[in-house]
């Protein structure tokens, strides 16, 4: 794999999750909704124990451990060495770029991409790679920050450096992109309350500036106001032909 491929997620974003500031509030899942939202999504797809499931952006291994406990043949992918060292205790892991995994085509019955797409410099390439990896009728579960409809996407600061809000796109943009690539949209849900709950907990623990600033939700690096964002759960399925 090329050095360029390994840099598909900026180092400054990977380092955002290296310490325990977020985990102390969110728990090991490091995202709004935590494992409860993951369980809810898994209940909505038709895969059986033994199915091959990829956790793209496995982080500390919380979802990887859950998948293994449910009887799935799980593989965690990530680029962060610190997090991978922890995740490896929860199951099989691999250090790869999400837009060029070098894994066999059709090797996964389901892929989870939770708080991952917004960290990728090229969302389309990552979604194309996930599509290649999925077996026929395989499922892609996405949960991530989204811009609310009508948000001015021209609010840009060239000096912004970090935060999972940095790459946020409008929900319809992602849905349309999925359809063009060859996915069928099974379901999409607004999970804004999960985002509000995590944001409130971060502010309570660290204060407004540090609590939201580290996620890129305010400050010099921010593209927009926190109220411009929501959190979405998307379930897509690879078309059989």
A few lines on this structure:
By secondary structure, the protein is of the alpha/beta class.
Describe the protein.
This protein is an alpha/beta fold and 241 residues long. The protein has one domain (3-238): Vaccinia Virus protein VP39 (Rossmann fold, 3-Layer(aba) Sandwich). It is built from 10 helices and 8 strands. It has helices spanning 3-6, 11-15, 23-26, 34-43, 62-69, 81-87, 123-133, 171-181, 192-206, 208-213, and strands at 52-56, 73-78, 92-95, 108-114, 134-147, 169-170, 183-190, 229-238. Strands 1, 2, 3, 4, 5, 6, 7 and 8 form an 8-stranded mixed β-sheet that branches. The longest helix is centred in the last third of the chain and has 15 residues, at 192-206. The radius of gyration is 17 Å and the shape is globular. The two termini are 29 Å apart. Residues 1-16 and 154-162 have low confidence and may be disordered.
Topology:
Elements lengths: L2 H4 L4 H5 L7 H4 L7 H10 L8 E5 L5 H8 L3 E6 L2 H7 L4 E4 L12 E7 L8 H11 E14 L21 E2 H11 L1 E8 L1 H15 L1 H6 L15 E10 L3
Parallel strand pairs: 1-2, 1-4, 2-3, 4-5, 5-6
Antiparallel strand pairs: 5-8, 7-8
Summary keywords:
Rossmann fold; alpha/beta; 241 residues; globular; 8-stranded mixed beta sheet; disordered N terminus
